[in-house]
Amino acid sequence: MGLTKTTAVCPEAIMELANQAATKNKPFVLSLSAPFIPQFFKDPVDASAPYWDYVIGNEGEAAAYAESHNLPSKEPKDVAVHLANLPKENKQRKRVAIVTQGTEPTLVAVQGEDGVKEFPVHAIEPSKINDTNGAGDAFAGGFLAGIMQNKPLETAINMGQWLAKLSIQELGPSYPFPKQTYEG
Q1: Helix (H, G, I), strand (E, B) or coil at 32
Q2: In what order do the strands lie in the sheet containing 96-101?
């Protein structure tokens, strides 16, 4: 995580990290981060694509990727499938592409598998939503915590959604105090 800005600023560094991850069979994660990343930094993003084990973005970032790559569809499901099935360097694990959609289900495509799995987001009363800034980063953080703990994919998605739900109840990209612990 956080490597997208490195992709834009120092492509050599991201490629070194990508190669190290593939060589040592370590998970390599890319967040599309913002629509301008796949639009204006297409070449560095594409160069790192064979190394992604996980790629995470929201529906706007997925659409921007589709547009910059002239995909026939900008539908989030179609983009997720496309991302999941790009050529991959490390064949020891399948790539997972995740597209979040705010209050709509989180979409997950797994390399070589048919269809897209949908995970309904955690319900929240609209009156409890304070600020959605940072919700995507919170999702990614919770998701990656699950992956690093060797949780099943479904549990990691649930952890990401849980943390995003906490985040949007706060002002700015912050988390509640006192600390809460995932107990899913």
Answers
A1: coil
A2: 29-31, 54-58, 96-101, 104-110, 117-119
Residues 6 or more apart in contact with residue 30 via CB below 8 angstroms: 3, 4, 7, 45, 48, 49, 52, 54, 55, 56
Q: Residues near 17 by Cβ (< 8 Å), separated by ≥ 6?
A: 3, 6, 28
Q: What is the mean pLDDT of residues 128-144?
A: 93
CATH topology of domain 3-121: UDP-N-acetylmuramoyl-L-alanine:D-glutamate ligase (3.40.1190)
| Helix intervals (H) in the chain | 3-9, 11-23, 36-40, 42-48, 59-68, 76-84, 135-148, 153-167
Cβ-contact 75, 109 below 8 angstroms: no
3-state secondary structure of 42: helix
Q: Which of 46, 114, 131, 137 is catalytic?
A: 137
pLDDT digits (tens, 9 = 90+) for 41-66: 899 999 999 999 999 999 999 999 99
Measured CA to CA, the distance from residue 10 to residue 126 in angstroms comes to 40
Check residue 174 and report its DSSP letter: -
Segments making up each domain of the chain, as ranges = 3-121, 123-184
Is position 131 annotated as part of the catalytic site?
no
d(CA 95, CA 103): 25
Give residue for tokens 């939503």: 129
| pLDDT (0 to 100) of residue 9 | 66
